[in-house]
Amino acid sequence: MSSENQHHGQSAPDAGPHPAGQTPGSQSSPAAGDAWHTVSGQSERTFVVSAGRPHEPNSPVNPPVDFTSTYTYRPSVEQPQVYAREGIPSFGPLEELIAGLEGGTRSAYFGSGMVAKDQEQPVEVQPALLFSSGLSAISAVLNLLPLGSHVILPKHSYMGFFTMAQQMAEKGMITLHRVDIAETEQVRTTLQDVSTLAQAQEAEVLLWIESPTNPMLEVADLPALTAEARRRSILTAVDNTFATPLRQRPLKHGTDIVVHSVTKFLSGHSDVIMGAAVTSDAELHRRLHAHRNLHGTIPGPMEVFLALRGVRTLAIRLDAAEKNAGQLAHRLEALAAEGTVPLRSVSYPGLSSHPQHERASAQLGGYGAIITIDTGSMQAADAVLENLRLWTPATSLGGVESLAERRRRHPGEPETVPEGLIRLSVGIEDAGDLFDDLLGALRTAAEILRENR
Ligand SMILES: Cc1ncc(COP(=O)(O)O)c(C=O)c1O
Known about the structure:
By secondary structure, this protein is of the alpha/beta class. The chain is built from 12 helices and 12 strands. Strands 1-7-6-5-4-2-3 form a 7-stranded mixed beta sheet, sandwiched between helices. It has a 5-stranded mixed beta sheet with strand order 8-9-12-11-10, covered by helices on one side.
């Protein structure tokens, strides 16, 4: 078995993470437990603000960012920094911050993976790797796989990931096995079948998890699936973009690699495209770094500056957006029950009607800021989007501003996503204003649909 399948012997997962002082915006509380700590021993609310700041006398309060492609050398002096494609010191604060939040460490695993303040043993962060986009981080992970590997993936997942995996499969590089990631028994059976097949072929297997999934918001049993995959020496990767490390920490459950679209919640202002990968496995880290260097998928210094500035407010932004999302989801569900507007159903992990509500409550530190509504048809959805005034119809998510998009406008989105489904990325505006705007657009859409009948 190659190095990426050698695990650290993590212990069984414990209860889900629980952000300090968090009040989720819906009826039942998410995972209870002690406030978690980052690898620094600080609460993540402190850590996002304090990590990576220079402390020497007369140093700037914010770490400096180098705008340079290359570094001076003298043949007589050892040169740690040669060329910016290898990564530059200015990536450091953000790479350490993201790894610190996710629990990416260089040292052995500590039971729960979280480090209590009184823990004596120092823990060294293994910095995340920043990428030019979320998709380039995903590409680096898929490129770890030797030819002939098997990939088990959710039938609903971020469209770009699926398209990339599909193209690799069409070239005969990998074989795909699609599963309903929320159906634990189905995934277990697939893990077993594929692992038997792969053993016979001496092939590698990757389990790719997205949870909650984009855009269907299915919630996977992360601890159970990761444990099963590890038992079978299957490499695991989790796209943690929707939950963020403040609500879910897959490394703690034994996941090998976590990827992020930093573009979304982490940077939080819809002004940056960036990705990140985090792992506690030194060899995986080395290979992902080598891939990034050879493919040139590094972010620019300006993006690094903006993303670091954005992540400083992650904790308060996420709290505010999640509170709004909880309120909106409940109000929208009540509106759907009235039957007066084109609103068939509302999906949000914080609603008791969500099929994995219990699992989300046990596993996630909060239900997130993404809601989907099914308007019943493309016509209805488009009429709603045409008539929004406060919400911005746009793709993407995780910014301070609220965005709405009909997902099936993208040909790559599978047909199992309803034609009339609108994904709502809830921002930090006033929840009442957001609801009123949606209500107005839904009412106008109802009139348009009546006139066109
Ligand atoms: C869950 C998820 N992962 C990855 C990506 C890709 O990220 P990026 O747009 O930064 O390449 C996206 C983008 O929408 C996403 O939603």
